[in-house]
Design brief:
This protein has one domain: Orthogonal Bundle (Non-ribosomal Peptide Synthetase Peptidyl Carrier Protein, Chain A), CATH 1.10.1200. 61% of the residues lie in helices and 0% in strands. It is built from four helices and no strands. α1 packs across α3. The longest helix has 16 residues. The chain starts with a helix and ends with a helix. It is found in: Cytoplasm. Carrier of the growing fatty acid chain in fatty acid biosynthesis. Its main location: cytoplasm.
Length: 82
């Protein structure tokens, strides 16, 4: 799976599961603010990542993720490391 496919897959489940408008998903946009995430939403996000990409996510991983680009980079790095 290449980077574009990963980003497309991420954006797809964000639109479907978090009901965010696709045009609001921009690389430099704030992830938490745009998705209006609370603690339960983070659990849902982790479940989506694990089921779509097949790797485990630790809560500490999210401390450095601020923007959609950070999120993309994190998932791409984990997928490439598999």
């Amino acid at each position: 799976m290449n980077k574009e496919e990963i980003i497309t897959k991420i954006n797809g489940f964000l639109v479907d599961e978090f009901e965010v408008e696709e045009e609001l998903i921009e690389p430099q946009a704030d992830l938490k603010e745009t998705l209006d995430l609370d603690s339960l939403d983070y659990v849902d996000l982790v479940v989506e990542i694990e089921s779509n990409f097949g790797f485990k996510v630790s809560p500490e991983d999210f401390t450095e993720i601020k923007t959609f680009q950070d999120f993309y980079d994190y998932v791409i790095q984990k997928v490439e490391a598999q």
